[in-house]
Specification:
The structure is a homodimer. By secondary structure, the first copy, chain A, is of the alpha/beta class. Chain A has helices spanning about 20-25, 40-45, 45-55, 70-85, 95-105, 115-120, 185-200, 210-230, 235-250, 265-275, 280-295, 300-310, 320-335, 350-360, 375-380; strands spanning about 5-15, 30-35, 60, 90-95, 130-135, 145-150, 155-160, 170-175. Helices cover about 50% and strands about 10% of the residues of chain A.
Chain lengths: ~375, ~375
């Protein structure tokens, strides 16, 4: 196991009816900005539950956070925080709303000239407006971590930042609010969760048994519960297990003390920035390519994944175990309704070229060995046409 | 899954050499009470490492915390905190030292007439002296939870308390400091860790897949690494996995959202209070009895444990799967050098009677169904003669 320093202070309120306990978690004298996305929380009753729980408190709404939240929109919220003396934020939504809230909370206290530096230059964050979340879409784990991804619409830049100052003070996870989610969002969420685990697990062995077993625990939960969630949308236990799995996939505890990859996300973000694909879709495309192109570097962990999660091991060669494991992942993504090739989304070699040029200009070297250059990313994408 | 509210803010510094980073975690102007047990930290170099890391800070030593720490000893430390204006405590040791420190930190700020009320009446704790820990013995999980068990020597009362105010601010886990531990302490620690998991896992099914898989992850780690730790005391990776497993067995995350038992601990504490057995020894005696006497109530989870952790399932009846699983647990404890019957420690029916009388006077009803009365505890112990 590698050395690490880590803590995760987020308080979780889990279960049916927990939104009613919101007021206990927010200081009485708060001036609250309520941040959400489109209209879904009004359609499914979550908005009303939240407003009822906040009765008597000062609350201003800020709606319209986009999927892959825009920097430009976040700046509007920062202006409201300043003009209305907001001192607490409540994010109600999925990863996009929570990520936007993290950036807004940091940008509102940012003393530099341009808050885009938080994303581009990773300038350090000294302070942030405290916030809590009500999660409506299990996928990104943002409800229990300190990272966020923001897109500048003007030049299609999608960048990440992280800071201990932007951990939510609390997150409310009520699985029953996910009953009304469209199948597409459940599928994307399961794929996102799956890939979060793989980014922290399918690298090279580090003799970290707890982290490996925990990673496999989350993956096995997804395999069991993901398909059921599509077939029986109102099964509370299934939604509870999926919601809790997605939080654990990226709350930090399975990724500390072990090497991390994150190349699939790095490449996938560009696909979203350029072509507007859903985040989960980009991951379903890129991951099998990363695993095939880097199969020898990742061989031991791919084989372990195949054996522990998919039961792939009897009477098979080294190469078969690797290939069958990757095929099993692709089949699972397809079973969850998420297509795994560029052509499924109307993209071809032109798109690969555009991503290649962008990655070349960034000069990043991705992956647990920092060996995925723009050239290798191109090779990866060309396996996914 | 059951509803829950939970957070665990403890910062973990894990790995070789982390003691050198102590000073970064303690405020500069601190007046520190350094609490430890017997002389082992002086013999193995940990004391010197700690003192070097604290160079230049105000530090007073307080040694002599017993295994199963005494209330009477804790009160002496409280006096020093008051007389020396101590504002930070550093606990260096295993569960006993850390548990004592939790009680001392709470008792030093206690406004009531008698701090024993914290244990006996569970009076609420408004404040506690902040503290960190340097863990030297993986076993109790105290380094990352908010509970403690204290014994009043005068009347052999061993009682527990818990409070969010007594989470360590940080805990340093350097696996290499465990190389010098005697085999007996490793064995006891593995048994203690194993039973912590079972108390939170072998109850009745609650459809909580993450918690179940995580519980099994810790148990599988113990089965793989426990025997290796006895055979190769200087294997860093083995010690790292064991240390991290023991923390996860009782940091709260596997026990939330599911029923909890804790009867084995409740009965075991009395065996220690009356006869001075090591905590791990008492658990190794009591657990198989609890599982056998309550085998139908716990059937589904015993069978799941047998299948997922010990691989017990092919061509076996319901009763065989249960009995073989319990036997596998007993064999593992014995393999770890911890005997599993009262007679192994020179105890017999008289001891059972004494425990029975004590439990009857307490009036407790233990276990996940609150159905383990003094009578049932007697029945359990009589299976362990």
């Amino acid at each position: 196991m590698e050395n690490f320093e880590f803590s995760n202070p987020v308080k979780i309120l889990f279960g049916k009816g927990q939104i009613a306990n919101l007021k206990n978690e927010i200081p009485d004298e708060s001036r609250i900005l309520l941040i959400y996305g489109g209209g879904s929380i009004k359609a499914n009753g979550v908005y009303d539950q939240v407003k009822e729980a906040l009765a008597g408190l000062f609350v201003i709404d800020f709606s319209g956070i986009e999927p892959n939240p825009h920097y430009e929109t976040c700046l509007q919220a920062v202006n409201i925080i300043h003009s209305q003396n907001i001192n607490f934020i409540l994010a109600v939504g999925g990863g996009s709303v929570i990520d936007a809230t993290k950036f807004i909370s940091a940008a509102a206290c940012y003393k530099g000239a341009d808050s885009w530096d938080i994303l581009e230059k990773h300038t350090s964050i000294a302070e942030a407006v405290p916030f809590g979340t009500v999660l409506t879409l299990p996928a990104t784990g943002s409800e229990m971590n300190s990272g966020a991804v923001i897109t500048r619409a003007s030049d299609k830049n999608k960048l990440a930042f992280a800071s201990e100052k932007v951990y939510p003070k609390f997150s409310i996870l009520d699985p029953s609010v996910t009953f009304s989610l469209p199948a597409k969002q459940i599928g994307n969420g399961v794929v996102d969760t799956f890939v979060h685990v793989v980014e922290q697990y399918v690298t090279y062995p580090a003799n970290a048994l707890i982290q490996d077993y925990f990673a496999e625990s989350v993956l096995k939960t997804l395999l069991l519960e993901g398909p059921k969630a599509l077939q029986a949308p109102h099964d509370y236990d299934v939604r509870a297990n999926l919601m809790w799995a997605s939080t654990w996939a990226l709350n930090g505890w399975i990724g500390i003390g072990v090497p991390n990859d994150w190349a699939t996300h790095g490449i996938g973000h560009e696909l979203t920035a350029f072509y507007g694909l859903d985040h989960g879709q980009t991951l379903a495309i890129v991951l099998p390519g990363v695993l095939r192109v880097l199969k020898e570097q990742k061989a031991e962990k791919i084989i372990r994944l195949g054996e522990q999660v998919f039961g792939i091991y009897n009477n098979l060669s080294h190469d078969e175990r690797i290939e069958y494991t990757i095929q099993a992942i692709e089949s699972f993504f397809e079973e969850m309704g998420v297509k795994t090739h560029l052509s499924d989304y109307g993209l071809g070699a032109d798109a690969v070229e555009a991503i290649y040029e962008r990655l070349k200009s960034r000069g990043w070297k991705l992956g647990e060995k920092r060996n995925i250059t723009a050239d290798l990313a191109k090779e990866i994408l060309l396996t996914r046409l």
